[in-house]
């Protein structure tokens, strides 16, 4: 299918393939839908399938093109080659003026490379994040750096991201500080009196219990680091009668094996299936604190006043650490236990983290990005 250029509009194609990408691209897609000067084209690779579709439904986005590349157990090479081949056809047929990618997935790198091969300009949303370790997170750190080389417009969420790009030699006039679109998306779905469509979650007394929301799935944590994280969490629950844990457990069977082994059906540790974006963000809003190795949660939780303990050895999101909304605690069992215990027992330290100013934006990043696109491509 070819999308015709109606009325001399500029063609902007957004490409994404996973749930986190869809969440952060959705506000931009919706903003471009309102802009008469833009022919808005959406192409998904479906690097993830089920979790991607959930977000598309929430934001009422119907892709113009769906490559549907997902298959269980696919390798990074398979994802890259299938995405690259599929995107090449779509780009050649539709000839966009700009291709937008977001973040650091294999779809992002493949999308940027496919656009580069066709000499199409590239906009990188959430540009300039760096952990400093090419293998952590893996392969995301490499993907974002490789994408940066090909990018024409770097949409950096923070000043720190801009500084990272300048240090790597990118010209200042191609870097734009916008805030992070995840905050835009978050404000769209969180509700004050949200009711879960889930018997277990609705049964939890969020008012009188200290609920810890945990996520863990990073490849580099699988094995002993993840076992340390889970063991520390179990010890915390056993030491505090008023604590419950909700763990939307990742689909990766290796993660599940470790979780089932360590938690062993503990009555106050709830292993639930991955949640849709809307119930997940509202669960976060109701929780007491967040323990995670995710990148996005380091940005989202502070907007809801929730302290974040990052169970990784390094992070590409140091702004939250500097601001005091998040704390990097690593994967040592004793260290994790100590840090969680402190936030549960010392109210002053908890309030200091929960009241810190979120450095990731005001919820208007998508509008800023669309305005920049119009100015630069008009």
Task: Give your account of this protein's structure.
Helices cover 46% and strands 16% of the residues. It has helices at 19-33, 50-58, 76-94, 106-117, 140-150, 159-167, 181-189, 199-203, 224-239, 253-263, 277-286, 296-303, 318-323, 333-345, 347-354, 365-377; strands at 10-16, 38-44, 65-66, 98-102, 121-125, 153-156, 175-177, 210-215, 243-248, 269-272, 289-292, 308-310, 326-328. The strands form two sheets. A seven-stranded parallel beta sheet has the order 3-2-1-4-5-6-7, with helices on both faces. The chain has a six-stranded parallel beta sheet with strand order 10-9-8-11-12-13, sandwiched between helices. Helix 1 (19-33) packs across helix 16 (365-377), helix 3 (76-94) runs parallel beside helix 4 (106-117) and helix 4 (106-117) runs parallel beside helix 5 (140-150). The chain starts with 9 loop residues before the first strand and ends with a helix. It contains 16 helices and 13 strands. The protein has two domains: 10-179 and 363-377, 3-Layer(aba) Sandwich (Rossmann fold), CATH 3.40.50.2000; 199-355, Glycogen Phosphorylase B (Rossmann fold, 3-Layer(aba) Sandwich), CATH 3.40.50. With 378 residues, the protein is an alpha/beta fold. This is UDP-N-acetylglucosamine 2-epimerase (non-hydrolyzing). Pfam families: Epimerase_2 (PF02350). InterPro entries: UDP_GlcNAc_Epimerase_2_dom (IPR003331), WecB-like (IPR029767).
């Amino acid at each position: 299918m070819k999308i015709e250029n109606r009325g001399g509009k500029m063609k902007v194609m957004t490409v994404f393939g996973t749930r986190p990408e869809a969440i952060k691209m959705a506000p931009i897609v919706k903003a471009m839908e309102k802009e008469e000067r833009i022919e808005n084209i959406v192409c998904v690779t479906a690097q993830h399938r089920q979790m991607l579709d959930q977000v598309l439904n929430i934001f009422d986005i119907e892709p113009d093109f769906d490559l549907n590349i997902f298959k269980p157990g696919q390798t990074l090479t398979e994802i890259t080659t299938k995405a690259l081949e599929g995107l090449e056809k779509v780009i050649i047929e539709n000839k966009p003026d700009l291709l937008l990618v977001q973040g650091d997935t294999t779809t992002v790198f493949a999308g940027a490379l496919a656009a580069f091969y066709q000499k199409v300009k590239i906009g990188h949303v959430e540009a300039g994040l760096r952990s400093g370790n090419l293998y952590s997170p893996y392969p995301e750190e490499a993907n974002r750096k490789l994408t940066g080389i090909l990018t024409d417009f770097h949409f950096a969420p923070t000043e720190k991201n801009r500084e990272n790009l300048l240090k790597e030699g990118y010209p200042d006039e191609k870097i734009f500080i916008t805030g992070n679109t995840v905050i835009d998306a978050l404000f769209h779905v969180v509700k004050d009196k949200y009711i879960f469509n889930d018997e277990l979650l609705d049964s939890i007394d969020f008012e009188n219990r200290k609920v810890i929301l945990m996520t863990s799935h990073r490849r580099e944590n699988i094995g002993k680091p993840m076992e340390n994280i889970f063991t520390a969490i179990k010890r915390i629950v056993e030491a505090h009668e008023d604590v419950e844990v909700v763990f939307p457990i990742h689909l990766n069977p290796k993660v599940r094996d470790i979780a089932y082994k360590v938690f062993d059906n503990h009555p106050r540790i709830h292993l639930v299936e991955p949640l849709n974006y809307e119930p997940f963000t509202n669960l976060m809003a109701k929780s007491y604190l967040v323990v995670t190795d995710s990148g996005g949660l380091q940005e989202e939780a502070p907007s809801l006043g929730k302290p974040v303990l990052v169970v990784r050895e390094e992070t590409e999101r140091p702004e939250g650490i500097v601001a005091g909304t998040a704390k990097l605690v690593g994967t040592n069992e004793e260290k994790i236990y100590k840090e969680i215990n402190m936030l549960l027992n010392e109210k002053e330290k908890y309030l200091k983290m929960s009241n810190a100013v979120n450095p990731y934006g005001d919820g208007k990043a998508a509008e800023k990005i669309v305005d920049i696109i119009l100015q630069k491509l008009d």
